[in-house]
Amino acid sequence: MINIIGAGLAGLSAAMELAEREIPCRLISLQPSERAQSVLAEGGINAALDTMNEHDSPAEHFNDTMRGGCFLADPNAVYGLTSSAPDIVRRLLSLGVPFGLNDKGIVLRNFGGQKKKRTAYSKSSTGKILMTALIDTVRRYESAGLVKRLPHHELIKLRIEKGVCQGAVLRDCYSGECQSLSGQVILALGGLNGLFPGRTTGTTQNTADAAAELFSQGVHFCDLEMLQYHPTTIPIPGKRCLITEAARGEGGRLWISRNGEKWYFMEEKYPELGNLMPRDVVAREMFFVRRQEDTQGEVMLDMTGLSDEIWAKRLSDLRDNIIAHTGLDPKRSPIEVHEGIHYFMGGIAVDEQHRTNISGLYAAGECCGQYHGANRLGGNSMLGAVYGGGVAARTAAEEYAPSDDTAFPAEAGELSAEARPEFNEQLAAILAEGLGIVRSGRKLEEALKKLGELEAVCLREENRSRLGLAMLRSAIARRESRGAHYREDFPETDESFRKMTLARCEGNDADISFQVIPERRTADAASDRN
Predict the structure, then answer these.
(1) Phi-psi category of 22—alpha, beta or left, where left has phi over 0 and alpha has psi -120 to 50?
(2) Could you tell me if 347 and 192 are in contact, meaning their C-beta atoms sit under 8 angstroms apart?
(3) Which residues neighbour 496 within 8 Å (Cβ) at sequence distance 6 or greater?
(4) Which residues are catalytic?
(5) Is 219 in contact with 361 (CB distance < 8 Å)?
(6) Is 342 helix (H, G, I), strand (E, B) or coil?
(7) Chain segment 230-283, per-residue pLDDT in tens
(8) The domain 230-341 is classified under which CATH number: 3.40.50.1370, 3.40.50.2000, 3.40.190.10, 3.90.700.10?
(9) Which residues are paired to 409 by β-bridges?
């Protein structure tokens, strides 16, 4: 039986793929699927369906994705993603996702970093709607005995023997009991939000403890310096609340007061895409314009020019959320916005087929570094999760070796002690200081020094420190600016660094090396031209 750790879009997609092949699996998660981070996704899912009379194509989607990621992603993996996207979205429609429709098919909207309308959506709650459809589909396989749910269970550690993943040790968070399971493992853990409490738009339930333990166990990570700051977030208790990019896709405008007048700085600086430039560009411009001597106050998102129809049919739930959290009606007044950590482009290093460096271990979704390079395009995260979960499952199925399905009692050992909240906050402050929107060697070295002085009193804290150290060392090693990684001491992009950073745990330290990006296969390139 194959073990899937995580029950969001990537985990559900993997479970569906395995069940369709009649391979049994366990779907293991800390929270039920209805509370997975995927539910929080808002704006939409990308596919070059060309239903808006703009002559779009998967080849253009591929080019935009590679360009947006500053050519740091595996082009062969991205080609698979973008060429499969239309069929994925059409299948989601067949599963009951209520995308808007026109006479040519699914209605698409504009999203950042893309010149064509390519993002399918269901108002601004697309993640919740997609999750509902996949949950219902997987439940049918549960009733057939092909999927076994293990909710409220956390991954304690992998069972790795002689370089091969033999299974996993889990803990029931209700009873505290631990069990050891056999079989291959597909990781669908989500992002590293728990390393930055209160500073991300992701779920507060994602502690990052599992990822930190995996790193300490020898799983390789990549591109850990690539943190995406979303330009439009607002503070709420415990986290940042995302104001979806769809707000700008539908006509929302960013401005700041300059010499007493509204300055629409994105439209002036980037006339072609304006407010829909890639997220790293928008966030960085917001950072800089607030610090100009001739500007006053904060950056505002102005949606007052949107029509009643747009608010009613496309953004009604976004309006309700903003009113609930701020007391302001975005239909009638601009909203103050700030950058917030939104997505982790880096993560577990996988190949094109979603294998990790450990045989029998695979990863998909935001927990792995795949598809997005140095900066993710809006609308590609849900696509990457659904597609990646399917690819990981297909690979695991091809390498499937039936195992003993018996669960044996186990011990959590030193990992039973939770990290202290005060430790987590201190670590988060150190990492945020070094890994901000604008970085420098000096800031990173200072953060590294402070991290070395931070005292860890349990294994979970030690694991978190190791993973945080790997993030800082990755940013120090990349002596250039590329996508979300902007070094003010190295402000130019250096093509000698068009390589993936690879992080390995070495005792209490992290070894950072660079891995060459695979070449594009000529057969794929030729098919684009035909």
Answers:
(1) left
(2) yes
(3) none
(4) 279
(5) yes
(6) strand
(7) 999 999 988 999 999 999 999 999 999 999 999 999 999 999 999 999 999 999
(8) 3.90.700.10
(9) 179
